[in-house]
Specification:
By secondary structure, the chain is mostly beta strands. The chain contains two helices and nine strands, in the order E-E-E-E-E-H-E-E-E-E-H. The protein has helices at residues 54-59, 108-116, and strands at 3-9, 12-17, 21-26, 38-44, 47-53, 70-75, 84-89, 94-97, 104-105. It has a five-stranded mixed β-sheet with strand order 3-6-7-5-4. Strands 8-1-2-9 form a four-stranded mixed β-sheet. A hairpin with a 2-residue loop joins strand 1 (3-9) and strand 2 (12-17). The chain starts with a strand and ends in a 9-residue tail after the last helix. This is Chemotaxis protein CheW.
């Protein structure tokens, strides 16, 4: 059974299927002005990638700048103006089985579709 990436949001442990995660990046300096769920722009393989604070999206609390906070790079929704979206999340420290009852799986499709509406105009390269 495929595994999941475990993260600890303010509301408790959640998971994202590993097959949905393209890359995991460390907490990085972001450019641009944060706004609502948008945390900033992350340069990923030479392209500006929007980063959203997943903890803020789900729990209305910003992700703390601490060990274990990571940017999960995932494919954007099909109608998005970008290829990838970064999801800043706390407590990304290990993996778990997809059947782990101690974590709540996240419906990425629902969140990615919503976040597509919040992507600002990217800065000039």
């Amino acid at each position: 059974m495929p595994g999941s990436l475990r993260l600890r949001l303010q509301s408790g442990p959640h998971s994202v299927p590993l097959k949905r995660v393209y890359r995991v990046a460390g907490f990085a300096a972001l450019s641009g002005e944060p706004d609502e769920y948008f945390a900033g722009w992350f340069r990923f393989y030479g392209k500006q990638t929007p980063v959203f604070d997943l903890n803020r999206v789900i729990c209305e609390t910003p992700t703390p700048e601490e060990y274990g906070s990571r940017i999960l790079v995932v494919e954007a929704a099909p109608n998005a103006a970008v290829t990838y979206i970064g999801l800043l999340a706390p407590g990304v420290t290990d993996t778990t089985g997809a059947d782990d009852r101690d974590v709540t799986p996240l419906d990425l499709d629902l969140y990615l579709q919503m976040l597509t509406n919040f992507i600002p105009t990217p800065p000039t390269q």
